[in-house]
Each structure stands twice: as structure tokens, then as C-alpha cells.
Design a protein that fits this description.
This is DUF2498 domain-containing protein. The chain has 85 residues and is an alpha+beta fold. The chain has 2 helices and 4 strands.
Amino acid sequence: MRTTTQPIAREALLAEANNIIRQHEDYLHGMIATDVEQKNNVLVFRGEFFLDPDGLPTAKTTAVFNMFKHLAHVLSEKYHLADEA
């Protein structure tokens, strides 16, 4: 079952998320979380998706999507945004 999460400021959460990204084995240069929002109990991360000039996904897009999904899974179990509680 769901346990109680800790409140965290948006800036602190993004700092922790970007630290996780940089240390992850699937890190790609330029991969960064620039925004996060709370959707019910899930933290949704956003950032560069490495689209081509026509706005279509590139090979890096899937890696970024998977990283943001990983962040949502790991960090949503620990935190909720303090300013959206």
C-alpha cells in the first residue's frame, strides 16, 4: 500500500531528479529535468526530448521518456510537492 510521502520544494526535487539522471547508467548528454508537476500521487517530469527539426522523435527520445518514467516511479514513492499539497 501507499506510504506517506514527504513534502519537497520544486527546486529541491528537480535537483535530486537531475542528480539521479546524471548517475544513471542510461544517462545521455543533455538529458535534464526542467519542470515537475504533481498529478494526483504521481510526479510528472519534463525536459528536453531531443526531437528532430520537424518535431519528430529521435533515437534519444525513448531514453528520455524512460528516464522521466523512472524518476516518476522512484520519487513519487518518496515525495509530494510542498507547494501543491
